[in-house]
């Protein structure tokens, strides 16, 4: 982006011809909606150690503490709305033959904003399942089961359907995200510190497979040196501005089935 608030001619012309666009998002994407990020100045990790909260052993040792944290976040997320960045990405989806978002976020904001092809790499805070038998529970069902909810069928501990450290990512979502990165003409990495793997390898993969890769973040990250362009700024401000200058592309009419890469 230059001083006039316009984006590089290279990016605009790449987008013009792009059949396949992939997007990878992290916590910074939702920061302007009021969701705290994990790391950095306002990061929640400052208050909570990730190893105490975001791994299975810690959950088995102290499920009450982990549930307090997730209930707090469920409550927070239920009350928030997508920001201008989420809506801009939803608006870009119909401009390309193939467009998908691989998100590390568990907050549902891309879907709420109207994006259709979304690969949730780290789960979704709106779902819960039993560690004993795998049965799924809604939040409404959970509310009847107390502070440390146990499965009514097998008495196993119920946990949020999110991916903790040391756990595998959901295979179908991961495979689709890898395909999207490998085939993208243009790839965006937005609002992520790029330190948690394997998710952080997606933009690197896109780059090595030949995509033009653009990073958007309020500061440089471990990934910045690999990117073709680094845009420093808030995604909720940069993305709507990009949408204004966005080429129409193939303009798939809304209402067609969602495409995956
Ligand atoms: C803005 C902005 C604005 C702000 N606009 N930008 C050594 C020991 C143990 C494990 C490992 C190890 N080395 C590697 C590993 C693997 C591990 C890992 O990567 N660890 C590293 C941290 C070292 N990974 C895993 O364990 C993964 N699984 C795995 O590898 O499976 C294979 C395996 C199996 C068995 C055994 C071993 C391996 C799983 C990772 C799961 C991550 N889970 C979490 C919690 C999810 C649930 C929940 O939310 O509660 O996912 S951790 C947390 O980090 C969350 C996030 O999705 C993830 C990434 O964070 P993100 O999104 O990048 O957020 P931040 O806060 O870091 O960054 C925000 C950015 O936004 C910043 O850059 C800001 O500047 C920017 N920003 N405002 C634009 N307005
Ligand atoms: Zn069960």
The H/E string reads: HEHHHHHEHEEEHEHEHEEH
How many helical elements? Answer: 11
Query: What is the 3D shape?
Result: elongated
Biggest sheet character: 6 strands, parallel
What does this 3D model show about the protein?
The chain is of the alpha/beta class. The protein folds into two domains: 144 residues, TPP-binding domain (Rossmann fold), CATH 3.40.50.1220; 72 residues, SIR2/SIRT2 'Small Domain' (2-Layer Sandwich), CATH 3.30.1600.10. Helix content is 33%, strand content 17%. The chain has eleven helices and nine strands. The strands form two sheets. A six-stranded parallel β-sheet has the order 3-2-1-7-8-9, sandwiched between helices. A three-stranded antiparallel β-sheet has the order 5-4-6. α7 links the parallel β2 and β3. α9 packs parallel to α10. The protein is elongated and about 60 Å long. 37% of the residues are buried. The structure holds ligand BJW and zinc ion (ZN). The site of ligand BJW has 36 residues, from α2, β8 and α11.
